[in-house]
Fold this protein.
Amino acid sequence: MAVNLKNFTEAAPLVSNTNRYVDIDLRFNRHPGSNDVGAKVNSSAIAQSLRTICLTSPGDIDEEEDFGVGVWGILGENFTPVEILALKDRIRDQCTRYEPRAELTRVDVEHDFANYTIRIRLMYFPVNVDQEESVTVTVVRAL
């Protein structure tokens, strides 16, 4: 099934004095009142989008062959400092390109080779918000 990324990266302003960002809940949890698919709103919508960008591998989405960071493919690899910098640059590039609602301020990557774990921490300001937010993406290889 093809996914139109424009629907996920554009803000969905509602009728009010402030803009709200609304995305579909990718876990497909039901809304208790309407029994419809739930929604992620504002900060949780942006955090979900940033997680999706980090966890998606390039080539997974037909329309956007370059979309995604692809951390699953590098689990268990022995990283040099140069490779960690390249990964940070890839994360920053992908998040800036595909999530315009967030202005990244910091990207931290921790790699635990012995436990096959990569932890990515993104610090960002949601557009038009003065409070910095963060999201942590942890990828662990099942043994």
